C-alpha cells in the first residue's frame, strides 16, 4: 500500500462537512427581519441581542449576561469588571489559545502560565496552588475542546484564597460538569462565537455572571462606563464600547434550537472513532480523556494522543494527503516570547510540552459527519503509521 503523499490513492476523496453549516430557515428569516428593520446596533431599540443574552444566561444556569464583540474582549471585560487590574496576577493554563493570556495583559494584569493535567490537559489545581503569590487575584480555567475543567477543586481553592474565577468557555457551548452548565460555575464565564466555534456569527462573544453587582460592573465595562439605568451621557467609570450587533445576534439566537442535536452528533462521531481506534494494533492512538466531573462534552474538537514513533510534521502532512486533515494543536503559552516580553510569567509546564509534541486534533467540521465516516480517520491513521517509513 502506497501513501497518498507518495502517489497512492487517498483514503478519502470526498470533502468533509463545511463549517459553519448553511443558514437554516429561522436564521435566514430573523437576519432578514433585522436587516429590513434598520435596527442593527445594540442600542437602537432592537430586541435580538437582549433575547440572545437572556437565553445564554439560562443555558449557563445564571441570571445575567452581556453580549460582546468577541471572547477576547469578553475575558478582558470580565476581569476588569471583577476588579482585576494593574499589578494583579491571573493564573492561566499553558495548553490553551493565546487569547486566554492576552486578555489578562489587556486588563493590565500579569498572566501566570501553569501546567495542565498530563492526562486530560485541563488546568491542574495543584499547579494553581503551587503558583499562588500575594498578588494572585484570579484564576482562569479553560473548558478545553468542549469538556469541562475540574471545577470543584478550582473553586474550592479560589474560595480559600479569595480569588475570582473567570471561566474561559469559548469552546464549551452546552457542556456540563456534574450536570451543571459550564460558564455559570465561577464568578463569570465567557463564550466565543468566532468562526470555528459551535455557534458562530463570524465573530462575537458573551459573558455570563451569577452576581448582580458583578454583572453591573461588567456591563459598565462593555458600555463605556455607563451604569445600568443611568444617564446616557453619564460615564462614572472608565469603559469601552464592546457590544455585539443585532445582526450577529440574529445568526446566533435560532442556533440554540439545534445546539443539542449538533452536540449529540459530534459525540456519536467521537464514540465511533474511539471504537475504531481500539482495533488498531498496539493502540498507538487514543482519545484524550475527559476531566473528572464532565457529564456532557460538547466536542468542539477531538484531541488524539499519538504514542507511535512518527515524525509529527510528517504525520500531519501525510494525513492531509489522505483526505483526513488533522491539526497540530497549541504550543505551550510559556514558549511564546511575545507574552513573556510583556511580563507574563511561565512556570515549568512538562505536561503541556508533552501535549504539544504528541496531541493532534480532529476539527469540529469533521465531527459533524456521519459517525460511520469515523472509519476514514482510523483507516488513514493506520495507513500512515504503518507505512510512514516506506517511500
TrEMBL record:
GO MF annotation list: pyridoxal phosphate binding; transaminase activity
GO terms classed as biological process: polysaccharide biosynthetic process
Region described as Disordered: 1-22
List of residues that carry N6-(pyridoxal phosphate)lysine: 197
InterPro entries documented for this protein: DegT/StrS_aminotransferase, PyrdxlP-dep_Trfase, PyrdxlP-dep_Trfase_major, PyrdxlP-dep_Trfase_small
Family per record: Belongs to the DegT/DnrJ/EryC1 family.
Protein name: Aminotransferase DegT
Species name: Nonomuraea glycinis
Amino acid at each position: 500500500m502506497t501513501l497518498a503523499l507518495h502517489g497512492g490513492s487517498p483514503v478519502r476523496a470526498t470533502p468533509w462537512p463545511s463549517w459553519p453549516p448553511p443558514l437554516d430557515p429561522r436564521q435566514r428569516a430573523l437576519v432578514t427581519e433585522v436587516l429590513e428593520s434598520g435596527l442593527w446596533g445594540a442600542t437602537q431599540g432592537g430586541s435580538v441581542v437582549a433575547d440572545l443574552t437572556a437565553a445564554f444566561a439560562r443555558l449557563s444556569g445564571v441570571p445575567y449576561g452581556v453580549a460582546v464583540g468577541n471572547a477576547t474582549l469578553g475575558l478582558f471585560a470580565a476581569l476588569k469588571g471583577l476588579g482585576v487590574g494593574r499589578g494583579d496576577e491571573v493564573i492561566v493554563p499553558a495548553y490553551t489559545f493565546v487569547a486566554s493570556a492576552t486578555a489578562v495583559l489587556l486588563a493590565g494584569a500579569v498572566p501566570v502560565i501553569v501546567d495542565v493535567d498530563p492526562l486530560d490537559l485541563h488546568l491542574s489545581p495543584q499547579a494553581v496552588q503551587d503558583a499562588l503569590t500575594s498578588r494572585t487575584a484570579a484564576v482562569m480555567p479553560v473548558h478545553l475542546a468542549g469538556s469541562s475543567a475540574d471545577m470543584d477543586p478550582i473553586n474550592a481553592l479560589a474560595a480559600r484564597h479569595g480569588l475570582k474565577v473567570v471561566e474561559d468557555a469559548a469552546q464549551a457551548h452546552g457542556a456540563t460538569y456534574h450536570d451543571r452548565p459550564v460558564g455559570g460555575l465561577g464568578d463569570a464565564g465567557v463564550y466565543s462565537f468566532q468562526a470555528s466555534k459551535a455557534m458562530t456569527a463570524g465573530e462575537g462573544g458573551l459573558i455570563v455572571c451569577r452576581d448582580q453587582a458583578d454583572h453591573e460592573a461588567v456591563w459598565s465595562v462593555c458600555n463605556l462606563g455607563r451604569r445600568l439605568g443611568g444617564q446616557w451621557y453619564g460615564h462614572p467609570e472608565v469603559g469601552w464600547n464592546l457590544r455585539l450587533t443585532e445582526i450577529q445576534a440574529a445568526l446566533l439566537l435560532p442556533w440554540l434550537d439545534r445546539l443539542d442535536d449538533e452536540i449529540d452528533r459530534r459525540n456519536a462521531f467521537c464514540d465511533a472513532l474511539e471504537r475504531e481506534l481500539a482495533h488498531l494494533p498496539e493502540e498507538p492512538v487514543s482519545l484524550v480523556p475527559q476531566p473528572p466531573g464532565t457529564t456532557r462534552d460538547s466536542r468542539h474538537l477531538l484531541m488524539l494522543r499519538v504514542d507511535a514513533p512518527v515524525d509529527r510534521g510528517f504525520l500531519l502532512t501525510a494525513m492531509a494527503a489522505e483526505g483526513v486533515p488533522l491539526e497540530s494543536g497549541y504550543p505551550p503559552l510559556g514558549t511564546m516570547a511575545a507574552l513573556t516580553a510583556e511580563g507574563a510569567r511561565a512556570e515549568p509546564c512538562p505536561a503541556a510540552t508533552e501535549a504539544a509534541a504528541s496531541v493532534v486534533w480532529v476539527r469540529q467540521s469533521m465531527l459533524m459527519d456521519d459517525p460511520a465516516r469515523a472509519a476514514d480517520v482510523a483507516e488513514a491513521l493506520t495507513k500512515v503509521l504503518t507505512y510512514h517509513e516506506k517511500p
